[in-house]
Amino acid sequence: MSSQRSKCRVSEGGSAHRQAPGAFTVVELLVAVFVLAVLIAILLPAMGLARASAQRSVCLSNLRSLGAAVTGYVSAYSVIPLAGPHYSLPEGRTALLDQLSALLDADLPRVEHAGEVIVGQPFRCPRDSESAPVDGFSYEYTAGAFLADYGMAQDPNPKLLREITTMYESDPVLPVMEDGGNWHPRGLGFKKNALFFDGRADWKP
Questions:
Q1: Above 60 in pLDDT, residue 15?
Q2: How far apart are CA 82 and CA 34, in angstroms?
Q3: 24 by DSSP, 3-state: which?
Q4: How does pLDDT run across 27-41, given as a tens digit for each residue?
Q5: What is the distance between the alpha carbons of residues 27 and 35, in angstroms, rounded to a whole number?
Q6: Which residues contact 16 (CB under 8 A, 6 or more apart)?
Q7: Which end of the chain has less Cβ packing within 10 Å, N or C?
Q8: pLDDT tens figures, 118-160
Q9: pLDDT of 65-116, one tens digit each?
């Protein structure tokens, strides 16, 4: 009789209700939901970081490919390409990719008749949603900024161009090319990738 009472709970109306075997209580369900929420909170940032790391690897590979083309150009002509720092498809191709095109195994960025910009690797960083969709190129030709500062675009000076090339050859930390924006997470902020004259691609100093 006592064992029978232990398996039943009598309600105020006097009827007996059996508790289904193996049923979860409200507290147990809340604990399960809480644990699931904690796991999601831990996994989502980790997945985001893994994705960002993979995208940065693609970006670094792009810069190395562009760097190989720059190296090939310097080997052939003994100077860096004479071009401006920025690339803009709506205004026509800059001299940079025109000069490197023969050394790159890739179709150059282009604008379709409908106005859509078609750009693939190695010209677009996967994290770039600003430059490439409009201008057709994710990167800035940093060496071109030096050339522009010296007025080389208006008045090319072969001797000065050779001197700037020598400056790059003697200073491995000077970036030749870099991301057009701070797209890659690092620490508490975002940083740029950069290409150096010796072919390395890494964080911009």
A1: no
A2: 60
A3: coil
A4: 777 777 777 777 777
A5: 12
A6: 8, 9, 10
A7: N
A8: 888 899 999 998 888 888 899 999 988 888 887 776 677 888 8
A9: 999 999 999 999 999 998 888 765 544 445 688 889 889 988 888 888 777 8
User: What phi, psi does 175 have (nearest 5°)?
Assistant: -75, 135
Only one residue has tokens 């003697």, namely: 170
Contact 71, 199 (CB under 8 A): yes
Q: What's the CA gap between 138 and 48, in Å, rounded?
A: 22
Tell me: pLDDT of 180 over 70.
Answer: yes
| pLDDT band at residue 55 under the 50/70/90 scheme | very high
Among 108, 185, 179, 171, smallest CA distance to 142 is for: 179
CA angle (64 as vertex; 62, 70 as ends), nearest 5: 110
Question: The pTM is what?
Answer: 0.75
| HSE-up (13 A, CA, CB side) for residue 83 | 21
Residue 184 CA to residue 205 CA, distance in Å, equals 14
Q: Measure Cα distances from 137 to 12, 44, 51, 128 in Å.
A: 76, 30, 22, 9
CA pair distance 108, 28, nearest whole angstrom: 60
Nearest 5 degrees, angle CA 37-CA 42-CA 45?
120
User: Where in the chain are the domains?
Assistant: 55-203
